[in-house]
Structures are given as C-alpha cells and as structure tokens.
Amino acid sequence: MISVLGAMVCYAPLRALASQGASGGLADLWPLLIYGPWMVASLAILRASANGRRVAHSWCVVILFSALAVVLCVAHAPLTLSAISVAGLPPITALLSFHQLVRQIEPPAPPLPAPAEEPGNGHHRKPPSSRP
C-alpha cells in the first residue's frame, strides 16, 4: 500500500517533467516508464522470496528506478529543504517499505550445521609432560 501511495504522490511531478518534452497523452503515461519496471521487478522479487530464491538483478532494477524517481521528483521541486524532502521521500519510503515486506515473506535461513567432533573423543592426545 505504501508503494502504491508513493507512486501516486510521484505521478504529478513526473508527469509535469514529461510534459515539457512530450505531448499531453504521452506525458500522462510517462510516469509508467519509472514505476512499470519497478512494479515488474517487485513482483519478481516477491515470487522469488516466496520460493526461497535470490534475485539480485530484480533488486538492482527496483533500486535503480527508485533512485531515478527520487532524482526526477527532486529536480521538479522548488529549491527549498522542505520541498526537496517532500519530493524525494515517497520513492525512498516505497523502497524501504517494500524491502521490509520482502523480509517478512522470506523463509528463515536454515540453521548452520553443528561442528563435527574430533574422532576418538580426545583420547589420542598425549598426556601432559610431568617435567618440572
């Protein structure tokens, strides 16, 4: 839900940036170029996590497009600390919330095997020397 909210908040600034170089209809769809790959990679991560597999490539896509969303939203914001914070926070929040969701879904790591005992239970050792 947080990810969807982040995308909704970022839609207007991304659309405004796109409208500077694209027609109205294309500018309306342009934010999907950011959040489309993000969503597809997120679904791949969720599926792999449920099956106990790793997907480094999909995480790279999610992180890359989250960073791109931050940069583009901040580029559209007025140059004040509060405006930059408000513009950059939704993609970061979406990424961090998604990461925490995946951590909840991932199966726990298998326990490490116990160290093997030495053969002979220590009887093969030399007795300590009795020299003074």
From TrEMBL:
Spell out the Basic residues composition-biased ranges: 122-132
- One Pfam family, please name it: DUF2637
Region ranges (Disordered): 107-132
Q: Which UniProt keywords apply?
A: Membrane, Transmembrane, Transmembrane helix
Key word Transmembrane present:
yes
Signal sequence bounds? none
Q: Where is the composition biased (Pro residues)?
A: 107-116
| Transmembrane segment boundaries | 28-46, 58-77
Organism's domain of life? Bacteria
Protein known as: DUF2637 domain-containing protein
